[in-house]
Input
Amino acid sequence: MTASFDVVIVGAGLAGLRAAQVLDQHDLSVLLVEQSEVVGGRLRSHDIEGFVVDEGFQLINPAYPELRATGVLDDFDLRQFDPALTYITSERRFDLVDPRFAPRQFLAMLSRARVPYRDLVRLARVFATANLRSIPSMTRTRDCSAREGFERAGLTRATIENVLQPFLRGTLLDDELESSWHYTQLLLRSFTHGRPGTHPRGIAALPLAM
Output
């Protein structure tokens, strides 16, 4: 017996799962083909001696529009992290914190991070622009690399390389900040709207929920 489908999707990563979900919502029959034994693509978790270990840098940001649209977060056991990152170099260690949630830690950070006051003002302007401008108006401007975008915003090389680059390296999977400035702005926008976290069973719980 040969079955017929409206759409065939090859690959059950997040994109394939979401595409299947949307098509199903439009009453289309879908065949989802996956060569692996589990769904999720690159989103893999392993149980190693009682510890859940994800492959790669994996965080779930509940502010991602497409993730919210899936509806899976309603009953998803997302354990959100504190809005802070610990920055460590061979010379010093300090926390990068969100002043909206930890104002005292933010003030302490200013003295340890040695970030120029003008850079803080300009960085705040970058976040404000990413939040206040509509996505269509943001993406109508000429695109460039993330590094060039930060430079055009007036941020110093030291702040870009010592603060922003280490933070964004994992989320962009880009060591040199060559990613799209438009995409980076959307990423910054999402970080101000949601607190990333993870599931007790690791990142693999997300595709299974979908």
